[in-house]
Write a structure and sequence with these properties.
Blueprint lengths: L2 H10 L15 H14 L4 H9 L10 H25 L6 H9 L1 H33 L7 H17 L6 H27 L18 H11 L8 H4 L8 H29 L10 H10 L3 H34 L17 H18 L3 H30 L4 H26 L4 H29 L21 E5 L5 H13 L2 E8 L5 H11 L5 E5 L6 H14 L6 E8 L12 H11 L4 E8 L1
Parallel strand pairs: 1-2, 1-4, 2-3, 4-5
Length: about 600
């Protein structure tokens, strides 16, 4: 084994066969921990984002944080009730991309998909940055290493997910429920101390830099709407629940709404009565902890579990982003490489892409939560709106049962989230939201361009116009002087030309195809009989989803049967019009040629088909 496979196996573990791929079913308690850590963790920074806006209008404006929090909870209730309808309508899981595409059409679906992709990248960036802020609040000496710590956490999450971390309820439950308990403990002790007169505080003198206005209040409201991020995760993961899946998912979503609402209002109310003012290097949760709990073990416990739940929140994106990329790549809107399972039965390319994008944002924004937040909610509420609008269309198409009530509920959700989306864009546009407003149509345009390319390639390679050919199987010569192996990925025009070339040079030809689990064997063999009946086709199973190793082994065995002659290995390859189009296709031909050279195969020919 060469160095790279050993290095890869050491860090990522041994390859797993496709047969080991199974879906873990979760109890409601475990599912709440696994699927809701993103939403619950927003408590760690949502109140702070409201206060960071209000503080510009002086201490008198900070009291508005509570009514703003209550308004956000009302919005949360609408979103939760709306997504409960989505779960009932899509018991197999109804992500925004699927719901919008099925009910509103292709481009609304792509907008929802692009918005969600951006949202997942920002979720990792915000969660990791907020988790690092919790750590540096407890240990101020680490503040100068914020970016490095963020990148380290992203790398560790990437490594863990590339190894195939299971969504194990037991592992996720401990930090998630510890976080919930610590926040309710903080709220309980804080309220007790305040109402028993043990704490008397007042706001420090704060200079007024901005006047109080409706637009100003709406900006604070938009900042606090980050509390709703991640609420849709349960509707995406319905099949992760134990039967009856959709009923358990609806109930768990209700629990999430109640717990999140109580924690968010509780922290906002504590920040108000304890006169908390945001400080550089200290989170609001840390400031509350220091005032209420002191700086003992309980305070550090709160900070540590906050860090852990924020890491889990980022990990939610590591589960959802590669899955979304799989759907988009399967439909031809992203590079096909993103639809392939890696050695550890995870979508490795999606995991790496997410890590790289989040790492770039961490470097650009220097790991500062308040710098990234203005970008955050645009994608979330875009996908919320399209999903709920799609559900209204769904109910009007179905018209079964209490469809009118369901349509009204989803219609209310669509209107509410659309209004909030407009508020977020208008209030945060100059603060950074313009980047996302521009990025979404750019991403959708990229989807469309990729899809056009794949359609063009499929059209150029199609064998539909080739008439059936009746080759007579050639008798095997007594002495074979020039055997050939033709590698067959798909039976297309490029493959047909490679086989025609093989007939001109070889007196014995075999074709080999690797089935990684997705080949329709009957269909392939029927096409083969119509076009290439004179050449035997060998179909090899690949339980570990590798193309290279099975072909190399087949060629080695074939060459052993012909020890005294040169065997030509013929590899069909199509050549794209532009060099950058090659990014959309895997480099199997290159890797295969290198592997065959390493095995000392002496004649390797590439037959190119120019698109």
């Amino acid at each position: 084994m060469s160095f790279y496979p050993q290095f890869k196996q050491f860090f990522l573990g041994k390859s797993l066969p496709t047969s080991a791929h199974s879906e873990e079913r979760l109890s409601n308690a475990a599912a709440l921990a696994v699927l809701s850590s993103d939403a619950l963790s927003s408590v760690a920074y949502a109140t702070e984002e409201i206060l960071l806006v209000l503080v510009a209008a002086g201490s008198g404006a900070l009291g508005l944080s509570v009514p703003i929090a209550i308004a956000i909870i009302a919005l949360l209730a609408i979103v939760v009730l709306s997504y409960r309808q989505t779960i009932r309508a899509y018991p197999q899981g109804g992500g925004s991309y699927i719901v919008a595409r099925e009910n509103l059409g292709l481009y609304p679906g792509l907008v929802a998909g692009g918005s969600l992709m951006i949202d997942y990248i920002l979720t990792v960036t915000v969660s990791i940055s907020a988790g690092t802020a919790a750590l540096t609040s407890a240990i101020p000496a680490l503040q100068s290493h914020t970016v490095l710590l963020c990148l380290l956490f992203i790398f560790l999450l990437m490594l863990a997910n590339l190894r195939g971390v299971k969504e194990s309820g037991q592992i996720f439950m401990i930090p998630t429920y510890a976080f919930i308990a610590s926040i309710f403990l903080l709220i309980g002790i804080g309220l007790f101390k305040y109402y028993t007169g043990q704490v008397i505080t007042e706001y420090p003198s704060i200079p007024v830099t901005e006047g109080l206005s409706l637009f100003f209040i709406l900006r604070a409201f938009a900042a606090g709407c980050t509390a709703l991020t991640g609420v849709e995760a349960i509707s995406d993961g319905v099949l992760a629940f134990k039967p009856p899946e959709w009923k358990n998912a609806r109930l768990t979503l209700l629990y999430l709404g109640i717990i999140l609402g109580l924690m968010f209002v509780g922290i906002s109310y504590l920040a108000n009565i304890y006169h908390i003012v945001p400080e550089e290097g200290q989170t609001v949760v840390s400031l509350l902890g220091r005032q209420i709990l002191g700086t003992g073990l309980v305070y550090y416990f709160v900070q540590i579990v906050t860090l852990l739940v924020l890491l889990l929140a980022a990990n939610t994106s590591y589960a959802d982003f590669p899955r979304l990329c799989y759907f988009l790549a399967r439909d031809g809107f992203l590079p096909r490489q993103l639809s392939l399972l890696g050695d550890r039965l995870v979508y490795s390319n999606g995991i790496v892409l997410l890590s790289v994008c989040a790492g770039i944002l961490v470097i650009i924004f220097k790991g500062q939560v308040n710098a990234v937040i203005p970008l955050y909610a645009v994608g979330v509420f875009t996908s919320f709106t399209l999903s709920q609008a799609g559900m209204v269309r769904h109910w009007f198409n179905e018209q079964t049962g209490s469809w009118r009530a369901s349509a009204v509920m989803n219609g209310l959700g669509a209107i509410a989230t659309f209004v909030v989306l407009l508020v977020i864009i208008s209030t945060k546009f100059l603060l950074g939201a313009w980047l996302v407003v521009i990025a979404i149509p750019v991403v959708v345009s990229l989807f469309a361009a990729i899809h056009r390319h794949y359609q063009y390639v499929a059209q150029r390679l199609s064998i539909q116009g080739i008439a059936p050919r009746s080759y007579i199987p050639r008798p095997k010569p007594e002495v074979i002087t020039h055997p050939a192996v033709v590698v067959v990925g798909q039976l297309n025009r490029g493959t047909v030309e490679a086989l025609d070339y093989a007939r001109t040079i070889a007196d014995e030809i075999v074709a080999v195809h690797v089935d990684m689990g997705a080949t329709d064997r009957d269909k392939l063999q029927e096409k083969w009989r119509n076009l290439e009946a004179d050449i035997p086709l060998h179909i090899i199973d690949s339980p570990y989803r590798s193309v290279i190793e099975p072909i190399v082994n087949f060629v080695s065995q074939f060459e052993e049967r012909h020890p005294d002659v040169f065997t030509t290995i013929i590899i069909p390859a199509f050549v794209t019009r532009n060099w950058w189009d090659g990014i959309l296709h895997n480099q199997t031909t290159l890797f295969l040629k290198n592997a065959l050279r390493a095995k000392k195969s002496r004649v390797i020919t590439t037959v190119r088909y120019y698109l």
